[in-house]
Write a structure and sequence with these properties.
The complex is a heterodimer. Chain A is of the alpha+beta class. Chain A contains 9 helices and 12 strands. By secondary structure, chain B is an alpha+beta fold. Classes of the chains: A alpha+beta, B alpha+beta.
Chain lengths: ~350, ~1200
């Protein structure tokens, strides 16, 4: 094996005796002498690394913080306000067929440039529960002919012996509070188009799949769907079906495509239908503008600044320490085996 | 021709074969009974009964698997590993509803991992298969019909076949020797492959068949052999042969074993008795004990530890899950109504929360399985194979003279090489080259020869200026070396003294004694001359290298032994009177062979003047007492010389002779032949007694000194190993003086070392031995050894204060017997491990193995045994690592070793460079493996906390399962293959670096747990920073929020980045390969995400287009990733920077030194480098003699 490879090398070698030798062939790889960079954490390298991080982080942090601060956000928690004060059993109330219209007003404290995104925020709602996440049928949503593939959707798979479209717990529990906005008396239209991901609309929800037999089972879940609109255009459903990662989440409700001015009062008429009371979840209505970085969240900016500052501090600390103790390579005599070199 | 000459020999006459004649008594009565039912019909291979009974052919199989058994067997092997079994169980469970992920995604990585290991197994087995094919197809000449012999492959041989084996061929099966080219059916056999002994053994066929010397004789040959069933005992054979209506007894003397070699005999005829797997050598071959390295054993414990964490997490998770699930439905009221708790399956049923929790526990066990690195075993195996290639390919461990590179026979123990605490070394052939050189002699009380070699030089160095000969040995030695170099070197002869060379001895006083001395050298041996017909040069084949050295010496002195006749020896001699070369012929009457109890060997010859001489050579201990009163003329002088020689580490023999008168001889001959022909158990004893009587009243001629040459570079290597803090024990069969001297010459013993010698050669015990009361001897010996050990311990305690004086322990084999007894061995070990060097002399192979076991189990440290002969096999197998020297003494040691090297000095590089690297690589690799899996697995657990422990993984199924296979494992493999903390040069320059392995600094629990902690911290940072920065608000300017898919992919990106960059921070040797693999893994992750997202949605599910549509266009994805990755690495980086600078461990100190080549601080360098060890110490001791 080795001899054959050596023979190859031997042809260039003048000594013919080497032809059949088992001498390992020299290569940088087998001799483990590949050229390599041997980085070592010298003071200079450490300090420059920390400085570099802080130099990069601080501007990003500032930019992120500015972006976040520029975003105007109105959050209104309404789940208890929209229950009449005389109601004691909130769950029974929300499940009753009484009129649950509720009027609230929001004050715009800062000019909000369009588009203004309308979100609902739920709390303590486990869209990431395994039973819940799995309870859907992508085939059925996508393909009209797969109407019957509802095996994953139990117990919301069939009603009255016929398959439910869209089946499963996610669709069944579709959020059904509705909001309408008025500035003064003027209605602010909420554009509900384009609030979902394009790939969902085009590839995951069929254009020829229509809701069928939906919310017909014994227990009513959330919203009903208009059976004449294909699923690919039911954007509320599409948004809802992209399950949230965490139990507190916002979902896009729509867009208001006019600017809101500082001092405006927005009156919201909302149908408080969705039952979060049985699991004591909060409901919030959120109006928010966006920046290049998305919505309002100071965390990222502050975190960038903190870490950047920390690195600067570390760089400084290392500089001082290195300056004070320029050559202190530890004390090798602490090595246990060095203590008693001859003695064993 | 030589063949004809040999054919006429009837050597059996003159040898004192112990078991030459077999009787029908004892064992033989069992023939035909249980265990002795083997029947062979010679020359009738197709006989009916034979065909049924002994159907096995002669092919052998050393492969582990056959085509049919490969899959089941290797799969079974794989799933015996607890981690693999766990993955098999989870993989199977993945097909049930319990699984948090799809079954295919869980099974695929397992298939990849198991498949890779099986491919490796398959390739290894294929190599063995090829070897088998080669062996099975060797050719041998076999009798067909009518005296026609045809060549056929070994594998076609059948029991009963008659084969003809020619000179220097291997025996293809166990054969019954029928006849040979010699008239009396004697043949010489080399059994190197069986027991490693190089000397030739003599076998003899039955007289009845001895005449079957031609092919045609076998035309009508018929015989039936009944014998024992196949067994593994190499040294026994019981059977009988029916031939021409006569029954003959058979013994081992007639059995030629497979894999031994025919020597010095032109051909033999034999009948096949056992074939293939029935042969004794194959029956004897046991699989070498499979050794596992300490690191791997510890790794198993870590895996169990991880399993505990895993179970704990699953358990805690299940409890929470049970509570939460139980809460969902209370008094018929649904809490989390969107989960439909009223109409649930068993897995989520609030009515049966206990059952749900139990099932959830299984689910969680599957989910958190990512804690256990599935690819760990296979990665380690790949890395180890590559490491073995590095060892095999190392150009610095290639021995040019023998054309032998190093060979790692197992890759299991690479990292163990970096942790050796004690080396147990054989001496002959390991430290020395096992080639004997005649170097000095003392004739008639005059010392001749001034050849001085390493051994002696070292001794004089030790003695300082008080040299015995009183002049400067060093310069003299150099002069001699020069003069020797000018001459053509003769192997085995390194003698220089003008007084007796080139025939000058005739002018010396005591010419007659000198003449007798040379004559004895030329005649008293069992060597066989081989005359090169072209040049007339004579070479010899001798039983031992010592003997060859003597005959060669005689030849050089002018007494050339050139022919061994039937009962005679012919020599060319220089006649001292005429000064001419004359031919002399000695009639060989008897050979009294050497054995270890007799310690001497004699021949009785009759010279041309019909005078009968007994020529005897033997060890000094027994020879001086056998001298006649009138033969002690030179005793004192000779004794002095012998003592001197022994001190110089030379092997000495005393030469003496005696003239016998015809009567005396006749008397002896009668007794001797009577003893020889006696058929009884004490035949040997009788022969010995008879010999003992005749070997008396000898007249002393002189003594010889033969040097056992040290191998190149041994002292330097031992020095380095000692500097590395490795303890070296020498276990040798030599006598104490020789061993001590070799110890000095290879710098195992040093000037100023206090020697503790434990022996039993004290007068009281010798007196007891004379009485022969075994109980009393044992008792006294035991007490004596105990006393000496406790004295040694007391000395040790006394010397503890002064650091300079290290201690050396020397113990002989007799004492060792008692020291190794249960009640004393711990005391002995206690003493021995605190001594810098230990030498056990006169130790048997079994004692070697016992000592090895004692050190291994007593200290709990790694032991390495190194040896070259069959007598070292036990030791090699017993030790944690067995290193075989592929030297002269056969292949037995190499075959049972784990790593074979050609020279002792390569041990330095093997341990200090390869051992250290492998240890470091494997240990960092394993630590890193756990780190990366904990980082990944713990994010999953943290996510569970936010998903009410429902068992929903944070990541997509395929991302989940491919993490271990694609996105994180390649850089680790690169780490395991390439990483070097410091270069080979620095490894050798700072041998203390090796102690990192011995003390197990890099794989201590502290370090392992720190790495795990690092993993937990990384996971925490990644998880919380990701969720915090992406939780609620819009994810991009389009106002859309981040769902599970986006958060999962972002977190996953961060994990991939972090573990790969962490790797980059850990690596201290960055070649382009690591660069490619680290960046490649990261880039591959993006490419994979892109490609996976492009697959149809039913396959990619929630990852569909997630990268191209959501992640890539959104600045917040990139900014979050960047932030999380950098800030996750900062804690480790800061820790590393501080530790590296202010608390560096040894290899980091060396790195600093390398970095700052011309470090200005000599004090610092001194501190780092050892100063009290080895050569430096020796030299300084020499400079100032005490």
């Amino acid at each position: 094996m080795a001899s054959s490879s050596a023979a190859g090398a031997g042809s260039t070698d003048p000594t013919a005796a080497r032809r059949n030798t088992k001498r390992p062939k020299y290569s940088k790889f087998t001799q483990q002498e590949l050229p390599a960079c041997k980085p070592i954490l010298t003071p200079r390298a450490v300090i420059s690394a920390f400085l570099l991080v802080s130099v990069v982080f601080v501007p990003i942090g500032v930019a992120a913080l500015i972006a976040s601060r520029k975003v105007v956000e109105i959050v209104y928690r309404y789940e208890s306000k929209c229950i009449p004060s005389n109601v004691t059993d909130r769950v029974a109330y929300i499940q009753s067929s009484a009129d649950k219209t509720c009027r609230i007003s929001l004050d715009v404290t800062k000019h909000m440039k369009s588009p203004i995104y309308v979100y609902y925020q739920l709390d303590n709602f486990y869209q990431n529960h395994r039973r819940y996440v799995k309870s859907r049928s992508d085939e059925q949503l996508r393909d009209r002919s797969e109407e019957g593939s509802t095996s994953a959707c139990k117990p919301e798979d069939t009603a009255n012996g016929k398959p439910i479209v869209p089946c499963g717990l996610i669709a069944w529990s579709l959020f059904n509070d509705t909001y309408s906005f008025f500035r003064g008396n003027k209605n602010l239209t909420v554009n509900k188009k384009g609030i979902s991901w394009k790939s969902d609309r085009e590839h995951k929800f069929g254009k020829d799949v229509f809701p069928k037999n939906f919310q017909n089972s014994s227990i009513r879940g959330g919203a009903s769907l208009n059976e004449s609109i294909p699923l690919s255009e039911q954007e509320d459903l599409i948004v809802w079906m992209r399950t949230a990662a965490l139990p507190t989440f916002r979902k896009l409700y729509g867009k208001i495509e006019v600017d809101l001015n500082e001092g405006d009062t927005i009156n919201v008429t909302l149908q408080n239908n969705y039952n979060t009371y049985s699991f004591s979840g909060r409901k919030k209505l959120v109006l928010s503008t966006t920046s290049w970085l998305g919505g309002k969240n100071d965390f990222l900016g502050i975190a960038y600044l903190t870490v950047g500052g920390l690195c600067f501090f570390l760089a400084l600390a290392f500089t001082i320490v290195y300056f004070v103790k320029p050559r202190q390579l530890g004390d090798p005599s602490y090595l246990s085996w060095n203590r008693n070199p001859g003695g064993h | 021709m030589s063949g004809d000459r040999k054919r006429k020999l009837r050597l059996s006459k003159i040898y004192s074969f112990a078991c030459c004649k077999a009787s029908f008594e004892g064992d033989r009565s069992q023939i035909g009974g249980k265990g002795y039912s083997w029947v062979v019909f010679c020359n009738e291979p197709d006989s009916f009964e034979d065909g049924i009974r002994n159907s096995a052919d002669n092919s052998v199989r050393s492969t582990k698997y056959t085509l049919a058994t490969f899959f089941p067997k290797s799969l079974f092997e794989q799933f015996r590993r607890v981690a693999n079994f766990y993955f098999l169980v989870t993989g199977t469970l993945a097909f049930t509803k319990l699984a948090p992920y799809t079954a295919v995604s869980a099974i695929l990585p397992l298939i990849i991992v198991i498949g890779a290991t099986m491919v490796k197994e398959g390739i290894e087995d294929w190599r063995r298969k090829k070897q088998d094919i080669l062996v099975n197809n060797r050719r041998v000449s076999v009798h067909r019909t009518d005296g026609i012999f045809e060549y056929t492959a070994w594998k076609n041989l059948r029991v009963g076949n008659i084969v003809k084996v020619e000179k220097d061929e291997f025996f293809p099966a166990d054969l019954l020797l029928l006849s040979s080219s010699y008239d009396d059916a004697v043949c010489y056999v080399e059994t190197m492959n069986l027991d490693g002994e190089t000397n030739l053994k003599i076998k003899q066929g039955l007289e009845a068949t001895a005449s079957l010397q031609g092919n045609l004789n076998f035309k009508k040959f018929k015989a039936t052999v009944k014998c024992e069933d196949p067994n593994a005992n190499l040294y026994s054979f019981v059977g009988s042969m029916e031939f021409e209506d006569q029954k003959y007894a058979l013994s081992t003397q007639q059995l030629l074993l497979r894999d031994s070699k025919l020597r010095n005999t032109d051909y033999i005829f034999g009948a096949v008795i056992f074939t293939g797997h029935d042969t004794k050598v194959i029956q004897n071959s046991t699989d070498p004990p499979s050794k596992r390295s300490r690191i791997e054993k510890k790794m198993d414990r870590i895996i169990y530890f991880l399993f505990c964490i895993l179970f704990l997490m699953a358990f805690v998770g299940s409890i929470f899950f049970g509570i939460i699930t139980n809460d969902d439905l209370q008094n018929g009221l649904m809490k989390r109504w969107y989960l439909r708790p009223d109409d649930s399956t068993i897995f989520f049923d609030p009515k049966r929360p206990a059952a749900a929790a139990l099932f959830h526990c299984l689910t969680a066990l599957m989910l958190y399985g990512f804690f256990i690195p599935i690819s760990l075993y296979v990665s380690i195996e790949i890395v180890k194979v590559l490491q073995s290639i590095f060892i095999n390919q190392d150009i610095y461990m290639y021995y040019k003279e023998a054309d032998k590179p190093a060979r790692a026979r197992t890759s299991n123990l690479n990292e163990e090489l970096g942790q050796v605490d004690t080396i147990l070394s054989d001496k002959t052939g390991t430290l020395t080259c096992n080639s004997m050189e005649f170097i000095k002699c003392s004739i008639a009380g005059v010392a001749y020869g001034h050849g001085t070699k390493e051994v002696e030089k070292a001794m004089y160095r030790r003695k300082g200026s008080s040299s015995i000969l009183g002049h400067d040995i060093e310069s003299e030695a150099d002069d001699i070396r020069d003069s020797v170099d000018k001459k053509a070197l003769i192997k085995g002869f390194n003698f220089a003294d003008e007084r007796i060379m080139n025939g000058n001895w005739v002018n010396e006083p005591h010419v007659d004694v000198i003449c007798k001395f040379f004559c004895l050298l030329a005649v008293c041996h069992t060597a066989i001359p081989e005359v090169d017909e072209d040049t007339g040069n004579v070479s010899y084949e001798a039983e031992s290298p010592d003997e060859a050295a003597f005959v060669i010496a005689a030849r050089e002195f002018g007494f050339e032994f050139y022919q061994r006749g039937q009962t005679s020896l012919s020599t060319h001699e220089l006649d001292p009177v005429s000064g001419k070369k004359v031919e002399r012929k000695y009639k060989l009457l008897n050979v009294l062979e050497f054995n270890s109890s007799r310690k001497r060997m004699s021949v009785i010859v009759e010279d041309e003047e019909r005078k009968i001489f007994l020529l005897c050579k033997g060890a000094d201990s027994i020879m001086f007492e056998r001298l006649a009163n009138n033969g002690r003329e030179f005793e004192e002088k000779t004794m002095e010389h012998v003592h001197e020689y022994a001190n110089a580490g030379l092997r000495t023999l005393i030469l003496a002779y005696r003239e016998l008168d015809a009567e005396e001889y006749k008397d002896f001959d009668n007794k001797f032949s009577k003893a020889k022909n006696l058929v009884s158990a004490n035949q040997e004893l009788l022969i010995e007694e008879v010999s003992d009587e005749i070997e008396k009243n000898l007249i002393l001629l002189g003594a010889t000194a033969v040097e056992d040459k040290l191998q190149d570079g041994v002292p330097e290597c031992i020095d380095k190993l000692a500097q590395a803090g490795i303890k070296i024990w020498v276990l040798t069969g030599d006598k104490m003086e020789t061993a001590i001297n070799i110890g000095f010459s290879c710098s195992l013993l040093r000037q100023g070392m206090k020697q503790i010698i434990i022996h039993l050669d004290c007068p009281e015990i010798l007196a007891l031995e004379k009485d022969g009361d075994k109980m009393a001897i044992a008792k006294a010996s035991r007490q004596s050894v105990l006393l000496q050990i406790s004295e040694g311990a007391a000395q040790l305690a006394a010397y503890k204060g002064s650091s300079q004086q290290a201690l050396a322990l020397i113990i002989d084999g007799k004492s060792l017997v008692y020291a190794l007894e249960d009640n004393m061995k711990n005391m002995f070990l206690e003493l021995a491990i605190r001594c810098a060097s230990v030498i056990c002399c006169r130790s048997s192979p079994k004692q070697k193995a016992l000592v090895t076991r004692l050190v291994k189990s007593g200290t709990g440290k790694t032991t390495l045994a190194i040896g070259d002969g069959a007598n070292d096999v036990g030791m090699l197998q017993e030790a944690d690592i067995g290193v075989g020297i592929s030297g002269v003494e056969g292949m037995q040691a190499v075959m049972s070793s784990d790593i074979a090297i050609a020279q002792f000095r390569y041990l330095e590089r093997l341990l200090l460079v390869h051992g250290h690297w492998c240890y470091r690589r494997i240990s960092s690799m394993i630590c890193y493996f756990f780190y990366k899996n904990i980082t990944f697995g713990f994010t999953l657990f943290l996510y569970e906390v936010y998903a009410s422990f429902s068992g929903q993984p944070a990541y997509n199924d395929w991302l989940l399962s491919l993490y271990n296979v694609f996105f994180s494992s390649f850089p680790v493999i690169a780490l395991g293959v390439f990483d070097q903390d410091v270069s080979a040069r620095y490894c050798l320059k700072f041998p203390l670096l090796y102690q990192e392995g011995v003390q197990n600094v890099l794989f201590s629990w502290r370090r392992i747990l720190s790495w795990m902690l690092n993993g937990f911290i990384s996971a925490l940072i990644i998880f919380f920073f990701c969720t915090k920065s992406m939780e609620l608000q819009a994810f991009d300017a389009e106002g859309r929020t981040a769902g599970k898919d986006i958060l999962g992919a972002t977190m996953y990106t961060c994990v991939v980045w972090v573990v790969n960059l962490q790797m980059a921070l850990t690596i201290s040797y960055f070649t382009f390969v690591q660069l490619i693999l680290v960046w490649g893994s990261i880039v591959f992750w993006y490419l994979f995400l892109l490609a996976y997202g492009e697959m149809p949605p039913h396959f990619s599910t929630n990852t569909y287009k997630v990268f191209i549509e959501a992640l890539a266009p959104s600045p917040s994805y990139w900014i979050v990733t960047f932030f999380v990755v950098i800030s996750t690495l900062i804690p480790y980086f800061s820790y590393k920077a501080i530790q590296m600078r202010f608390f560096p461990i040894y290899h980091e100190i060396v790195q600093w030194i390398r970095y700052d080549e011309n470090i200005k601080d000599p004090e610092f360098c001194d501190m780092v480098r050892p100063k009290t060890m080895g050569s430096t110490a020796r030299l300084s001791a020499k400079a100032s003699p005490h």
